[in-house]
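Collaborator request, handled under Task 6.
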Amino acid sequence: MIAPAVTALRTTLAALDNATAVTVTAPPAPTDGPIAGAVAGLGATEAARRDLTDADVVAVIEDQILAREEAAVTYERGGPPRGRRRTAR
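Structure tokens returned to the collaborator:
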């Protein structure tokens, strides 16, 4: 079993990584090649990640803390109501 602290750190690191993602406005145009719908050129589908300010990092971490605290309260109450599916945040 992985220690809860390790799980919390992994989740927070993933949230920080996701926060650096940029919104793709238009996908690159596919080319005619050996793979249908593929894009030509090394890195053609890559996008620059955005830089997070210190305030952005703090906000992501605070959101993760809040989510864990809410999950703890739900767990202490006996878990989510039966029949209701868990949704992503």
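The cover message to the collaborator said: "The longest helix spans residues 54-76. The chain is about 45% helix and 0% strand. Please let us know whether this matches your experimental observations."
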